[in-house]
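Researcher: Let's do a round of design. I'm pasting the structure tokens now; please hold your answer until I've finished.
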């Protein structure tokens, strides 16, 4: 833990793959680096990923050509391909035992409309010089119209991989501080990170690599991204997994890949994405994934289940670079959509080059200050109208039940002392009551049955049943009333 004020060359906030990889790169150049992690490393999005390392980011390249141009689309591909190659080389050179394996990646369509989209994506591959191929079958009991492959992608165990990077960077003098919550940046001659306990970390550069930027710098990131939740189950099959990584382009989405567990091959089935805090009972998403697994893969048993949250930018390209023009010594990396393993590694190289004042060919594509009228303006309006709708709706809804009506292990918006609140009754009968107004910008939180959390439908803040913050953009807990 960080026990006092420190002075470093680079302060990195966030102990996920972006922060750890950035630190690993910078200490190799003799920089004094401190990584500040609010919880434990790997306990956030990095520890909940399906860990596909690929430049095949759903239907992205046709879209990028249309909105950003062919040159920018090619640079996006190169940035992620370079990241994949760097991970592969790092694993091989350091003999990292992290279940790394090369896999072909596939997008598949089950409807004619989605098949047409795959055809357009394949045309984009050809324009950009991306090796890919169309086919009309995948090795599962899923009737498809078309599939598009990208060869020689990869998968691995991210925690085993990052554990090695942490060991290497600390041997070179880097330090990782856990249970250290950064809450603000004082921007003076040198930017200074302020922690919740009042500690001060002075640095020449600050890298904001937390999942959601803990410091906004008036960049209004909460209005330029939305949070998506998605779900994963890990299970055993009756037969053998045929290899490859798969993603449907239809809704609801389905993601497939294998993994090793106690020496045996298991399958990870993901999907069911929706905006955080919005949609049906979250437990139903796990039920849907299990049913899909039994129908399409002959799933024998479910071992684990979990969910994760991803941030999506206005144009689907991450924000990497100076957080605002007024704060050139504070750099940000966020908005990886669902492709954080590859994009975060690409971001780490861009951040490293920025700190070392080296040119990076991909920086202009990922710059946080970019703005493309189509689709950025349209998506900005849509997202913020959605926020306004939920803000108003939550204020005027009157819950039909009171806190006394809650059953064991049940939560929801209820009445308590005549006030609209969030209530949860634990399995042993203890009642927890919190103010249901999100402490970020005042939207009303919703109960997440699948994860037992309070989720904000406006900007994705999440809280424990007792009100403590799970993830931002909020920094303050919900007021606990009981």
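Researcher: That's everything. Go ahead.
Model: Designed sequence:
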């Amino acid at each position: 833990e960080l026990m006092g004020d420190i002075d470093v060359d680079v302060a990195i906030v966030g102990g996920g793959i972006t922060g750890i990889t950035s630190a690993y790169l910078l200490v190799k150049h003799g920089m004094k680096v401190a990584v500040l992690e609010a919880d434990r490393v790997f306990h956030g999005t990095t520890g909940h990923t399906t860990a596909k390392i690929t430049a095949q980011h759903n239907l992205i390249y046709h879209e990028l050509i249309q909105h950003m141009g062919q040159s920018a689309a090619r640079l996006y591909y190169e940035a992620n391909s370079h990241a994949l190659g760097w991970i592969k080389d790092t694993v091989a050179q350091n003999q990292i035992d992290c279940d790394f394996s090369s896999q072909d990646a596939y997008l598949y369509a089950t409807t004619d409309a989605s098949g047409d989209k795959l055809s357009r994506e394949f045309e984009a591959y050809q324009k950009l010089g991306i090796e890919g191929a169309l086919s009309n079958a995948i090795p599962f009991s899923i009737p498809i119209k078309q599939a598009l492959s990208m060869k020689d992608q990869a998968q691995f165990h991210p925690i085993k991989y990052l554990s090695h990077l942490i060991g290497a960077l600390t041997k070179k003098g880097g330090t990782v501080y856990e249970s250290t919550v950064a809450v603000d940046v004082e921007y003076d001659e040198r930017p200074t990170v302020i922690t919740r306990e009042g500690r001060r970390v002075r640095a020449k550069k600050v890298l904001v690599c937390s999942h959601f930027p803990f410091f906004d710098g008036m960049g209004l990131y909460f209005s330029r991204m939305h949070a998506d939740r998605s779900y994963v189950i890990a299970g055993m099959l009756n037969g053998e997994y045929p290899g490859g990584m798969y993603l449907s382009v239809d809704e609801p989405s389905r993601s497939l890949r294998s993994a090793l567990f106690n020496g045996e091959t298991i399958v990870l089935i993901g999907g069911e994405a929706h905006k955080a805090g919005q949609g049906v009972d979250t437990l139903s998403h796990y039920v849907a994934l299990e049913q899909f697994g039994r129908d399409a893969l002959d799933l024998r048993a479910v071992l684990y289940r979990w969910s994760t949250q991803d941030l999506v930018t206005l144009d689907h390209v991450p924000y990497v670079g100076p957080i605002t023009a007024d704060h050139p010594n504070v750099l940000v990396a966020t908005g990886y959509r669902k492709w954080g393993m590859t994009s975060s590694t690409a971001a780490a190289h861009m951040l490293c080059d920025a700190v070392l004042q080296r040119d990076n060919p991909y920086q202009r594509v990922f710059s946080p200050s970019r703005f493309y009228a189509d689709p950025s303006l349209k998506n900005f309006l849509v997202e913020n109208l959605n926020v306004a709708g939920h803000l108003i709706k939550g204020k005027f809804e009157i819950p039909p039940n009171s806190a006394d009506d809650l059953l064991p292990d049940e939560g929801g918006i209820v009445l308590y002392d005549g006030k609209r609140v969030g209530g949860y009754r634990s399995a042993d009968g203890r009642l927890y009551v919190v103010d249901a107004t999100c402490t970020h910008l005042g939207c009303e939180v919703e109960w997440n049955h699948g994860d037992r959390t309070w989720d904000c439908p406006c900007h994705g803040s999440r809280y424990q049943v007792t009100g403590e913050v799970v993830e931002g953009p909020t920094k303050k807990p919900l007021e606990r009333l009981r």
